[in-house]
Design brief:
The complex is a heterodimer of chains A (236) and B (613). Chain A is mainly beta and 236 residues long. Chain A has one helix at 11-28; strands spanning 41-49, 52-53, 62-66, 76-79, 85-90, 93-98, 113-117, 120-122, 125-126, 131-140, 144-153, 160-168, 180-183, 195-200, 210-219, 226-227, 231-234. Chain A is elongated. Chain B is α+β, with helices and mostly antiparallel strands. Chain B is built from 19 helices and twelve strands. The chains are: A mainly beta (236), B alpha+beta (613). The A-B interface holds A 59, 72-75, 100-102, 159, 175-178, 181, 220-224 and B 90, 231-232, 538, 542-546, 583-584, 586, 588-590, 598-599, 601-602, 611-613.
């Protein structure tokens, strides 16, 4: 069999190899301009109204961040998690946060929040929801989940469309994904006293160890619902 | 020897370098390009340029766009699994975004060139070409305003003069109603020039301009009316979005006038060539020979320009090619929404009051006495298309003494142990590709000519406007203007073609128009825009998994296996939720107007962003 190893026969060949290595070295060394540091600051917080966090539909409402000082502008979307928290990776600097319409709160387009991001910055974003739910007490009865809550109207011009309780296998439960739903009797809901809504536990969930329950409130002024947090309810 | 070379060199130098006195010798007609003077003075060349522009007329998901139809019309996508996102998506902020100012520029440039170069053509011909271009431009602006709201109205070329200040090129958005007014005024001022084309169905003519007026003004009227009726109307403070409610009647009146001019011209009539009303409706859309109903169509011709629609949608067992087929599966919801001919609600009777299956002798019996347009729009189980029966049967329902056990064959076309058909060659089959997942196949626009189910081989045309729509436009506008008898006359005309008795409706609500348009114009790129202009889209496609409207359901026929019993080999129907339809349609308020591309906003700081974006 022939020997297939590369045999360096002479000094010229060694030189060529050296040249090749040097050239490769020069070519592969990166240029300073195309290396950026990764974003090392974060902006995070909750969407709040008077210290209570506003839940949303997962993959639903968003805020926008803008940064001035550049020729071209492009928004940085801020995705809001279902529990009302958000977090964005950014560079240090001054940003403008826009609470855009479409959420279960009033649009505040002209009321931009200026936020100075340095390292890990925490900013709770205040919004004005149409309705909020307080004093929630969710409990399991024999075959149903009962929720006691007090509903408060924040925006006078809004009308209540429905109040639903949702059951789901997972945390991500809302109007678009749920295992069971039940509507409260709107006629009997008052904004001064506490109200009740209950939902039968469906058969396919009855063998689970736990379910998640949350209440959603729809006003007629938005097609996104206000949600409470998802509560984990033990079934056994 | 050397001297010879020097002389030769010197001679060449003197001979070659002196310049020629006749500069025009250099100026020759180019042999490989057509210059403006040639193009704009040759009617044949101008026509071929116009053909290019007509070909570029925009639509959202019309013109045989099967994938798009499955996203916004009453159907689901049963094609390749790779594209199952069409059954599993939310309308994004940019859904339906359209900003084709390069086309607008092309048209404006052509208009200028006709003015500047066309000296050899006679005036009437130039006027006709210009009118056609302006028709196309109005059509494009209508598409823009439908999807984006008020857009910048650019009617001449924007040319930069290199003075360092581009602000004069930054055209702000017009108000939404100003764009509709622009469309109306343009069409009014060109319509008489277009009369020379009146015998054409593929080039703009007087009646095609009126048809566009009829549709656009109806949209403007209903936007004015129904946006204002919303709990939180969608508006911008500069009225780039949102038409004031007090303009509604004016627009409805303009729409009605345009429709009446078409109807009363006597040039068009509903297609009634086939006495079988079911086949008649199907033929009305594909018959190209002297079709009296078609007003404006995009035509196709063999070997020249063909489309894929029949290849993509022919029922599986009737494939002529080796792949594709069966992509657009109509929804049960659409099938049920067609009323019975006696006027009763169209819900199908597959389960009786006690929850038991209702048994049918023949597979088609369940659909008896339904609107003829159902049969003309959908291939129902047990019916024929392209000269052959479809072979639709989901499986067998074996009676085990107390209940039916539903069994599906492992392979399409298998026979059951009793020697008779188990599952048909056309399915339906759940969670499968290139076979119906709902139990229905689409019939509308499927060519009936042999060979046209081969890939890219269909030549039936796409009707942009037809008289059926104009009657419905006229009826709706008359209804909104309080002229109920006129509204009833026209809507009942459309319904009697569908097999309903004379004067089947005696009073009207908006729901009647919602239904009629859904039935008459299914898969013709109307449903999405109709729901938008009535401001119903967010209620119908609410994203709720339990919604009958936002979810596409199917209805599977099963053959009963119960030897010795009278029901043996008869049929029951089972409602199913196709596995492949993963997410209910979800249309948010933000989708009424698509977002404007951020690059466009950066280039023109005068543009206002759309609401919710």
């Amino acid at each position: 069999m022939r020997d297939r190893r590369i045999i360096l026969k002479s000094d010229t060949m060694k030189k060529e190899l050296l040249f090749l290595l040097i050239t490769l070295n020069i070519l592969l060394v990166s240029c300073e301009y195309d290396n950026f540091d990764e974003p090392n600051a974060t902006l995070s917080g909750n969407v709040v109204y008077e210290n209570s966090v506003i839940g949303v539909r997962t993959n639903g409402p968003q805020f926008e961040l803008w940064q001035g000082g550049y020729e071209l502008k492009e928004l940085i979307p801020v995705f809001i998690a279902q529990d009302g928290s958000y977090s964005v990776s950014l560079f240090d600097g001054e940003y403008k946060l826009v609470r855009k319409e479409g959420g279960p709160w009033m649009s505040q387009l002209t009321d931009t929040l200026v936020v100075n991001v340095q390292g890990n910055t925490i900013l709770d974003v205040p919004v004005t929801p149409y309705f909020i739910v307080n004093d929630i007490n969710i409990s399991k009865n024999e075959t149903s989940i009962d929720a006691e809550f007090s509903l408060k109207q924040i925006v006078e011009t809004a009308n209540l469309e429905f109040v639903n309780i949702y059951l789901g296998e997972g945390l991500l439960t809302d109007q678009n994904r749920y295992e069971a739903v039940s509507s409260a009797d709107i006629a009997n809901i008052s904004f001064t006293e506490s109200s009740m809504v209950s939902v039968e536990i469906p058969e396919e969930l009855s063998n689970e160890n736990f379910v998640y329950a949350r209440i959603g409130v729809k006003s007629n002024l938005s097609n996104e619902l206000y949600y409470t947090q998802s509560f984990k309810i033990d079934l056994n | 020897m050397n001297k010879l070379y020097i002389y030769l060199f010197g001679f060449l130098l003197f001979g070659l370098l002196p310049s020629c006195n006749h500069d025009d010798w250099f100026e020759r007609e180019p042999q490989n390009i057509i210059v403006d003077e040639q193009l704009w003075n040759d009617p044949e060349l101008i026509k071929s340029l116009l053909a290019n522009y007509y070909n570029r007329l925009p639509s959202l998901h019309g013109v045989f766009n099967v994938g798009g139809m499955s996203e916004i019309d009453d159907a689901m996508y049963s094609g390749h699994f790779d594209q199952n996102w069409r059954n599993d998506f939310e309308y994004g902020d940019d859904y339906g975004r359209y900003w084709d100012y390069s086309f607008i520029r092309d048209i404006n440039l052509a208009l200028d060139n006709l003015d500047n170069y066309s000296k050899d053509l006679d005036e009437e011909q130039v006027a006709l070409f210009k009118a056609e271009l302006r028709f196309i431009r109005a059509f494009v602006y209508f598409e823009l305003v439908k999807r984006m709201g008020g857009v910048p109205l650019v009617t001449e070329q924007l040319i930069y003069d290199f003075n360092g200040d581009p602000t004069n090129l930054q055209v702000p958005r017009s108000k939404e109603y100003e764009v509709y007014d622009f469309i109306f005024n343009e069409l009014e001022s060109i319509k008489t020039d277009l009369a020379a084309n009146n015998n054409s169905k593929t080039r703009a003519n007087l009646y095609i301009a009126l048809a566009l007026e009829s549709r656009a003004m109806l949209y403007a009227g209903s936007l004015a009316k129904y946006n204002s009726l919303m709990a939180s109307p969608i508006t911008l403070s500069g009225e780039e979005v949102g038409i004031p409610a007090n303009l509604a009647d004016g627009y409805y009146q303009k729409s009605l006038n345009a429709s009446l001019e078409i109807i009363n011209s006597g040039r068009y009539s509903l297609y009634e060539a086939n006495s079988n009303k079911e086949l008649n409706f199907y033929e009305a859309l594909i018959n190209k020979d002297n079709n009296p109903e078609t007003i404006f169509a995009k035509d196709y011709a063999s070997e020249l320009k063909e489309h894929w629609y029949t290849f993509e949608n022919v029922p599986r067992s009737l494939m002529e090619d080796n792949e594709g087929s069966s992509i657009l599966s109509p929804s049960l919801n659409l099938v049920e929404s067609f009323d019975y001919l006696d006027g009763s609600d169209g819900a199908l009777n597959y389960i009786d009051g006690t929850g038991n299956y209702i048994v049918y002798d023949n597979m088609t019996d369940i659909y008896n006495n339904k609107d003829a347009r159902l049969w003309g729009t959908v291939v129902l189980p047990g019916t024929a298309i392209r000269g052959s029966n479809v072979n639709v049967q989901a499986g067998v329902a074996v009676w085990n003494g107390t209940a039916y056990e539903l069994q599906n064959a492992p392979n399409l076309g298998d026979n059951f142990s009793d020697g008779k058909l188990w599952t048909g060659f056309d399915g339906p089959q759940d969670n499968a590709q290139f076979v119906s997942n709902t139990g229905f196949y689409t019939r509308k626009f499927i060519s009936n000519k042999p060979g046209e189910a081969l890939r890219n081989n269909s030549t039936n045309w796409w009707p942009w406007f037809r008289l059926g729509e104009i009657y419905l436009n006229a009826s709706e506008a008359a209804f909104e203007l309080g002229r109920e008898s006129l509204a009833l006359e026209y809507i009942n005309l459309i319904r009697s073609r569908a097999g309903f008795p004379e004067n089947s409706l005696t009073q009207l609500t908006l729901t009647d128009f919602q239904k009629e348009r859904r039935h008459e114009l299914a898969y013709e790129d109307h449903r999405y825009f109709d729901l938008k202009r009535w401001r119903l889209a967010h209620e119908i496609w609410d994203g709720n998994q339990e919604s009958e409207e936002a979810v596409v359901y199917g209805l599977y026929p099963y053959r009963i296996v119960n030897p010795g019993h009278e029901d043996d080999s008869k049929f029951i129907y089972v409602k199913t939720r196709p596995t492949r339809f993963r997410r209910a349609r979800f249309f948010r308020l933000a989708n009424y107007y698509a977002s404007i591309d951020p690059n466009v906003l950066n280039n023109n700081p005068k543009l206002v962003r759309n609401p919710y974006h």
